[in-house]
Protein: Barstar (barnase inhibitor) domain-containing protein
Organism: Streptomyces sparsogenes DSM 40356
Amino acid sequence: MTGAKPAPPPGPRRHTAALHLDGVRDKAGFLDRCARDLGFPAWFGRNWDALADCLGDLSWWGRPAEGFVLRVHGWEAFRTAAPEAAATAAEVFAEATARWAERGTPLTVRYE
């Protein structure tokens, strides 16, 4: 016996994506950044319904056993610059989180 400790069990397998909102000041910029940073499919229509549709599918991210994490960088600056768009975006994120929870696969949105 060498005294070596067994390797810890693997951690949760979650797909993590980052949305960078630096310089985004309106709805159009937010939706463009979602398309770019989150790798949305070509059919993404750059409107709130299309955002909800894309967040409700996520098949292009794969289906990890433990769910998804979306890290939203620059949220406070965006919320200050475009409060109505930020409120709607947060609502869409919350609805997507609830839908994924119903399926037993968590989607966690972290506002940073």
Residues 97 and 103 are 10 Å apart (CA to CA). Residues 83-102 form the longest helix (20 residues). Strands lie at 15-20, 68-73, 107-111.
